[in-house]
């Protein structure tokens, strides 16, 4: 699947920085293929935060500033780990429940990027998460 290499005329850098609103938290994302599979989720948390997210492997996201400012939120199964800035409250990234070897990251935090320039983005069905289905008896 080809990645998105420019959003709203702004190129996606191979190593793109992402920041919370106040700048206390700075991430470096390794995006050699651009933004892959941008999406929203309709689970109870994502509906409320409204972020458009992309995904990277765990090794492709590095907190380069403000690790001390990050706060962790977990709910339901406590498998997914959602991080946000403890100062400004902006969601920066999460370790995915459906793919724990990946981080989802907030496209709105990417330096210079307006995620609304993507137009319509797919919505993942987080209400009926595959991990919530019970195996057949």
Keywords, separated by commas or semicolons:
three-stranded antiparallel sheet, 137 residues, mainly beta, five-stranded antiparallel sheet, globular, 1 helix
What's the helix and strand layout?
Layout: E1 6-7, E2 10-11, E3 15-19, E4 26-30, E5 40-41, H1 44-49, E6 53-57, E7 61-65, E8 70-73, E9 81-85, E10 91-95, E11 102-106, E12 123-124
Molecular structure report:
With 137 residues, this protein is mainly beta. The protein is 4% helix and 34% strand. Strands 6-11-10-9-8 form a 5-stranded antiparallel sheet, with no helix packed on it. A 3-stranded antiparallel sheet has the order 3-4-7, with no helix packed on it. A two-stranded antiparallel sheet has the order 1-2. The protein is globular.
Strand order of the largest sheet: 6-11-10-9-8
Measured by DSSP, the beta-strand proportion falls in 25-35%
Q: What distance separates the N and C termini?
A: 36 Å
Specify the overall morphology.
Answer: globular
Average pLDDT number: 91
Largest sheet: 5 strands, antiparallel
Which parts are unreliable, with pLDDT below 50 for 5 consecutive residues or more? none
What does the oligomeric state look like here?
Answer: single chain
- The percentage helix is under 10%
Number of helices: 1
- The count of strands amounts to 12
Q: What structural class results from the helix and strand content?
A: mainly beta
Q: Report the order of strands and helices.
A: EEEEEHEEEEEEE
Rg from Cα: 15 Å
Task: Give a brief description.
The chain is mainly beta. It contains one helix and twelve strands; from the N terminus they run E-E-E-E-E-H-E-E-E-E-E-E-E.
């Amino acid at each position: 699947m080809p990645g998105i290499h420019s959003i709203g005329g702004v190129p996606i850098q191979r190593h793109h920085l992402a920041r919370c609103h106040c700048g206390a938290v700075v991430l470096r994302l390794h995006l050699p293929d651009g933004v892959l599979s941008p999406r929203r989720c309709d689970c109870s948390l994502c509906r409320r935060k409204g972020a458009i997210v992309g995904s990277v492997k765990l090794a492709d996201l590095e907190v380069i500033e403000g690790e001390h400012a990050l706060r962790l939120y977990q709910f339901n199964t406590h498998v997914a780990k959602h991080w946000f800035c403890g100062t400004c409250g902006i969601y920066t990234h999460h370790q995915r429940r459906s793919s724990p070897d990946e981080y989802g990251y907030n496209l709105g935090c990417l330096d210079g990027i307006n995620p609304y320039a993507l137009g319509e983005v797919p919505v993942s069905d987080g209400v009926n998460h595959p991990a919530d289905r019970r195996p057949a008896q």
